[in-house]
Each structure stands twice: as C-alpha cells, then as structure tokens.
Structure prediction request, 177 residues.
Amino acid sequence: MTTNLIPPSRPDPRHFRQAMAHLSAAVNVITTDGPMGRCGITASTVCSVTDDPPTLLVCINRSSAMHRIFENNRELCINVLPGEHEQLARDFSGMTQMPMSDRFETAKWNLGNKGVPVLHDALASIEGKIVDLKDVGSHSVMFIEASQVQVRSNGDGLIYFVRNFHRIKRPDLATTR
Prediction:
C-alpha cells in the first residue's frame, strides 16, 4: 500500500485566529503602576504555569503601547472579571476609545501591596512581578510570580468566546457535589 504524504504547512494566520476564537477564555484586566505610569489592558491570554512557586503567564502584543509600560514597571495585577464587568472589559480593551485615565474611574480600585490597581470586586486578583519574558512571534509571554492572591466566593464569570463577551452563571455548589 502506498500512502501519499502531504508535507506539513503552516496554517494561514487568519484561519488560526478563527480557530482560536472558539477557545473560550476567562476575561481579565491586567493593571500596573510604577515609574512608567498607570495602565491596564483586557486580556484573555492568561493561564497558570505552576503552583510552586505560584506562577502565571500573560501574553501581550509587543506592538501595544502598553507593552513597554508593563515590561518596565514589572509589578502588575491580574484581575479576573466577574460577569457584571463586561463594560469594564470593553473599556480596557480599547473598544470604547476611552482615555486610559478615565478607565480607572468606572469601577472601584484598591491599591495592592506594590501600588498596582486591584479591582475591588474581581472574582480573583493575583498581584505579582514579571520574573521572565519571552518573545514569541508578535507577542511577549510574561511570566508572573504571584505575591498576593484574593478570591471572591460569589459572582458569575465572564468569558470571551467567538469574539464576544458572555456571562457564565456560577453553579450552585450544593447541587453539583
């Protein structure tokens, strides 16, 4: 039996982005403050790496004006958004063209241990420091070692799926056990 092997090829970037649009992801607002200034961005490219030491990764496009600020400030907070903060996600994503300083006026923020903005009612807030940074294609993969974690015990989730925000109802734990 003869099999014709087709040489592997790179997927078309548009086709790959379309596939990634079907990957449901939590919506986060990543914030920083420091010598380079205060800013925040909406990101769905956040995931845990290890729990010892507690480390996450965040991917940020290097062409973003905020990339340099995060890279130089080093301290940041990953704020996992609850369902009621879809508008905040839109504001910090730049969809609304709201100036950066005004974006911080639309919700209540606390100051974290290193002075970074921490969303008062986030589902989870993970403060940390960029301990490593790797350039991959158009983005930087920033590895953040967590120094402070806060978790809220109630509230719905917010995900990004098929290029839109969707509120995810928190399951009733009494009926899911």
About this structure: The CA atoms of residues 124 and 151 lie 4 Å apart.
